[in-house]
TrEMBL record:
Pfam families: Peptidase_S24. It comes from the Bacteria. The lineage of its organism: Bacteria, Pseudomonadati, Pseudomonadota, Alphaproteobacteria, Acetobacterales. This is Peptidase S24/S26A/S26B/S26C domain-containing protein. Gene3D superfamilies: Umud Fragment, subunit A. InterPro entries: LexA-like, LexA/Signal_pep-like_sf, Peptidase_S24_S26A/B/C. Residues 79-181 form the Peptidase S24/S26A/S26B/S26C domain. Signal peptide: none annotated.
Length: 203
């Protein structure tokens, strides 16, 4: 995939995450032709949208300032928070001071962190080598993250990458994944939605 297409997809995906809209409705919000974004976010895009289209999407999603500042710092890197593997459980990098860093997406903010997928237990949703980004500074109540893919910290100090769904007991969540049994009725200490997945390095 050409670099300009990859960057355009990254920007549009971030705009979708920020607005909660799919490509069609994001295009309508931005006042651009819906097929422009649906083709870009499809399986085999052949061209990137025009600069004017990307600017319209950024403005509609309210991400203009963030992306402009990061485009001026293309070498920006973010800390590696940990690995995610079997059962979509996250293994933290030792200590609070990160020893490893990975390339940042264009929209990276102060709290952006990364996870690297290990093994094939989450195939086909994630492949080994995929880099999953989330914003550790954006910890939200689990009620605000329902049906979204999130990094979830439990009261037991366990960390998972799961889809958050309602639990049966009040104040609890059920965590759903692709190839593992649900974890039911847990208390989430904090939840942070996934903001982007970089699939360029999958194995």
């Amino acid at each position: 995939m050409r670099e300009e297409i990859r960057q355009a997809r990254e920007i549009v995906q971030y705009a979708m995450d920020k607005t909660g809209k799919d490509p069609t409705n994001l295009a309508r919000l931005a006042g651009v032709v819906p097929s422009t974004l649906t083709r870009l976010m499809g399986d085999n895009p052949t061209s990137a949208p025009t600069y004017k289209t990307i600017m319209a999407v950024m403005a509609a999603a309210g991400i203009m300032d963030v992306l402009r500042s990061n485009m001026q710092e293309a070498s920006k890197r973010v800390p590696l928070y940990g690995d995610v593997g079997a059962g979509q459980r996250i293994t933290r990098v030792d200590g609070d001071t990160p020893l490893e860093f990975v390339d940042a997406p264009l929209w990276a903010e102060a709290g952006t962190c990364a996870l690297i997928v290990k093994g094939d237990s989450m195939f086909p949703a994630y492949w080994e080598g995929d880099i999953i980004y989330f914003d550790k500074g954006n910890m939200i109540p689990f009620e605000d993250a329902l049906y979204r893919e999130c990094v979830v910290a439990l009261d037991t100090d366990e960390l998972y990458l799961k889809q958050v769904t309602p639990g049966i007991a009040p104040g609890t969540a059920t965590l759903v994944s692709y190839n593992a049994s649900p974890i039911r009725d847990v208390v989430a200490r904090w939840v942070s939605p996934v903001t982007f997945v970089d699939r360029r390095f999958r194995k």
